[in-house]
Amino acid sequence: MRVYLLIMLFFCGISFAQNTITGSVTDGNKQSIPGANISVVGDRSAVSTDFDGSFKLTTSAKLPFTIKVSVVGFTSKTVNITTANQQVNVVLKDEENKLDEIVVSASRTPERVLESPVTIERMGIQDIKKTASPSFYDGLENLKEVQMNTSSMSFKSINTRGFATVANTRFMQLVDGMDNSSPLLNFVLGNMIGVSEIDVQSVELLPGASSALYGANAFNGILFMNSKSPFNYQGVSVYFKMGQTSQEAAGTNNYYDFGMRFAHAFNKYFAAKANFTYMQATDWYATNYADKTTAGIDRSNPNYDGINVYGDEVSTNIKGVGQTLAGMGLIPAGAVNLLPNTNVSRTGYNEIDLTDNKAANTKIDFSFHVRPFGDERLEIIWQSKFGFGNAVYQGANRYYLNDFAMQQHKIEFKGKNFFVRGYTTSEDGGHSYDMVFTGINVDRKWKDDKTWFGQYAGAYIQSTLGGASPEQAHAAARTTADTGRFLPGTAEFKNAFNQVINDESVLTGSKLVDNSRIYHSDANYNFKDMIKFAEIQVGGSFRLYELNSHGRIYTDADGPINYNEYGAYTQLMKKFMDDRLKFTGSIRYDKSKNFDGNFSPRLSLVYSGGEKKNHNFRGSFQTGFRNPSTQDQYIGFNIGNAVLIGSAPDNLTRFSETFNLSTEGQSYSGGSTTKNMTGVDAYNNSYVASSVTAFAAMAGSNPIAAAALLKKATANYVKPEEVKAFELGYRSVINGFSVDINGYYNIYNNFIGNLNVISTYYGTAQDNPNLAAGPTDPGFQSVRGIQNGEYRAYQLYTNSDVEIHSLGFGVGLSRKIIADFELGLNYNYAQFDFDQAKDPSFEAGFNTPKHRIKASIGNEKVLKNLGFNVSARWNSEYMWESNFADGMIESATVIDAQINYAVPKLKSVFKLGAANIGGKEYTQVIGAGLIGQQYFASWTINP
């Protein structure tokens, strides 16, 4: 009985002095405002309005008290509450600018956008509703500074301020504090395990280096996606989109996107939510059949290597084949002279024949939220996220991520001034495969390379003896060698294809295996309630990588590779001069297993001028660094025509290959019939690949002069890349225009990149080897290795000694014009300076247009409940450089548009939209499919 009374008293105490406030929030046109925040001033009680602008707020605050009503795009308003169960109807006035929006990411503490010490872009709930793009993630491309790189419909990579790539290890993406990067490859897979658009609370983007607060990977920028709390946003939300995509290569195909959100606060102590989304579409067909290396070459060229053709990477010198055949007595020695001294490649398969061209993504997440004290003093969150799907990823090769899966699990403790969280990320490659090796090994299923090239050489000789021209002889030789080729669509092809994509061996298959993990923890504490003279924060993080590709991608055949990194930081923020001048200083120390520790300081000043303090000038300096990625350190990946070798000291000997030696090669190797090649050979005994190409072009006519062109590679083991970043900016409202201007200048040292090299099976690489020295000279032997085709190509991970500079500026303007029409316009300029002559073989890969212009116009209330938005963007042409293929990306103009109609009684919004209206197909990545048009209709229901 005593226990029962205690329980009753406990719950009576909890419910004591509870006040319930109900009401609605509308704009000046009496239109409801969903998503408005209602909070009790001086208390942690808060709630948001539902779809029709209604709210119900329960608080234990004593009467009288004040509530604050706020939402982005409107002027905040306070209301005095004097009686219990008071009914409140609030009308908010439109705000002419967005400078009072609250952001957190720039300084890890809430502050107005106007006071941010660095450039920051934001997308809120209302912006997501207005976006003209097919999804909110696509809509991020319309933000100032953002460059999108589309590898697949379900895999889009965001970048800012240059050096863009699909596998963007320079850019971070955090969803509710969790890094979305792949544990194996260290880059973000778009929104495949991100957040549903009906669960997005806000998106914040920090362009440029952010290492001082967020660590080594926040090098080019960081994107924060924050989801809605089930305490504040409750009920069932649903959206359904359907439409079509249109592309010349793929035709017209259906597109579906569906999502549901369930959220409920059972009481003030416990709430939970769950999300489910599913997207399915036909991917953009990749049909770029230009040659990878030589402009103007087509399939009629004997050594054709098409960008989206796989299997033709297998190439050899056909005269060398003839010499081998003559040595075996299969052809007369004199017949060798009929063969040209040129390379010939096998006949490959088009990408569209090696994939089902399906793009799909399923996301599931759920979270449980516990507030032990019934308010925000302490909240404990368990969150689990699962992402599954199909997409095409482009790195050194093109990879089909088929049934790829990633999951994240987090436990977090957070309060007003602190958070402590830990999470793990794991992934499973599913049935993913390398499309290049699929083409190579399907070819080998119907005829091995030696037989194919032997038949080619024999048929060429016969055709030449019969009076054929070289072009005719090559055509006849290919026809003969291709006899028995499995044609796409046939039972033989399908059988061979299925065998290859389910075979993990690079010699016979193409399956990618991945079961890698990340274990991460981080914490932050803000002393603002304990220390008054300044706002001081401290924090830190720890991460453990567990790489496990079973030897398929990394040198982990004998077991997982583990390595860790950790960091700690502190920040001080202080205001002076009647709060007009804000100083922010921070410093972070990071240490990775294989590298010395690095300090990253940041200093910034923000001055608020004008009577209303709304002319804000900002300046900042920070240093950043980027630790080499897991690929840079531990990869050991055979991509066919080369091997990618990471430079961690313990990695070099773990990757090895054994090659047979010719009779001549045996004479240089003490009679050994084989040569074992490791990463040590790649880094310490190799020629720069471009010098070997130059040698080959001249060797036939003048071998001694050609040898003088050979250059020994001097690649150092990769180390952290560094940047010094300077930024100036200005934000204000001038004659109704919201203005944001920023400029930056970056200085990069030890820039991480790749170097292609050639290592011979015998001899010693050296500058200008002396052919006159004879067969006993190691330099002579290495040249003979090149001439005999007895060498291995490698791609090394190293740093450039040349300092690289990049600079740019941006201007953003927005204002409401006639009635409620809102106009936005922004421009970005970007360039980089790199003296290629000082490092001819180094590819910086800036991959960014010099000029970009984006514009939008919209009105949420053209008529009652009817709104629209149109956005347009243009970019100048620019050079794309990557491990897979280089080429010029043409300028493009893209227009997206949507109209929406709200039906408050159904709590619904209906939308019709289209992307790339009337525009021609365009590309963002050399090697990926051209992007066509997309049309959709959607129905969204929010409580």
Core attributes:
5-stranded mixed beta sheet, 943 residues, disordered N terminus, mainly beta, 43% strand, 22-stranded antiparallel beta barrel
Structure description:
This protein is mostly beta strands and 943 residues long. It has 15 helices and 52 strands. It has a 22-stranded antiparallel beta barrel. Strands 10-15-16-13-14 form a 5-stranded mixed sheet.
Structure, briefly:
Helix content is 14%, strand content 43%. It has 15 helices and 52 strands. The two termini are 43 Å apart.
Break the fold down into its secondary structure elements and pairings:
Blueprint: H1 2-15, E1 19-26, E2 37-40, E3 46-48, E4 54-59, E5 65-70, E6 77-81, E7 87-91, E8 102-103, E9 111-112, E10 121-124, H2 125-130, H3 136-139, E11 147-152, E12 155-159, E13 171-175, E14 178-179, E15 200-207, H4 211-214, E16 221-227, E17 235-247, E18 251-265, E19 270-282, E20 309-310, E21 315-317, H5 318-327, E22 343-345, E23 349-350, E24 358-370, E25 379-394, E26 398-414, E27 418-428, E28 433-434, H6 435-446, H7 449-465, H8 470-481, H9 491-501, E29 517-526, E30 535-547, E31 561-576, E32 581-592, E33 598-609, E34 615-626, H10 630-634, E35 636-638, E36 643-645, E37 656-660, H11 663-668, E38 674-678, H12 679-684, E39 687-688, H13 689-699, H14 703-707, E40 721-734, E41 737-749, E42 752-760, H15 778-787, E43 791-799, E44 804-816, E45 822-833, E46 851-863, E47 866-875, E48 878-880, E49 887-889, E50 892-903, E51 908-915, E52 933-941
Parallel strand pairs: 1-7, 13-16, 36-43
Antiparallel strand pairs: 1-4, 2-3, 2-5, 5-6, 8-9, 10-15, 11-12, 13-14, 15-16, 17-18, 17-52, 18-19, 19-24, 20-23, 21-22, 24-25, 25-26, 26-27, 26-28, 27-29, 29-30, 30-31, 31-32, 32-33, 33-34, 34-40, 35-36, 37-38, 39-42, 40-41, 41-44, 42-43, 44-45, 45-46, 46-47, 47-50, 48-49, 50-51, 51-52
